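ok so I'm stuck.
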Amino acid sequence: MKILGIYGSPREGGNSDLLLEKALQSAKSAGAEVTALRAADLDISGCHECGGCDETGECIVVDDMQKVYPQFDRADAVILATPIFFYGPPAQLKALIDRAQAPWNRRRLSGKQRHASGSGYLIAVGATQGKKLFEGTELMAKYFFDALDMNYGGAILFSSVDEKGTIQNHPDALNQAFGLGQRIGTAEP
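replied:
not stuck anymore, here's the structure
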């Protein structure tokens, strides 16, 4: 099992980072091959909506996304971890997600029907208790994973968590992240 973890927070060591680290460590201990990237560390432009990938399935914008596309292709599972900013993900992560138009077009151009080559999971943390706090991000994640030809495997979502590191005061959250990593790490690719 090859797992790609995507750190979506611009705040290194924040709550969503800690949960993703717990999940990835757990998956690795279960025998999975784990790689990770931090969206905020990459030089990624937003989608230009130029139509360049419409004909080829390849993005014509040359930036760090060219390093990310092969990681998408190799992954059997993707774990996307993000804080919630104004009921959505941070801009750095959203740019990466929007650029998944190219892999979606590649599949469309190949004529292949969707065959769900893997699964995608969401870890999200928000400061407020809004009833719809995660709805937009979860819907966006489902379509992102669909663009990567992956099933949506589910989410672990935590509200009322704001200050850096306070997720460590929530053992249930850490246990859920650990369990998610175990479940993914022991799954068949």
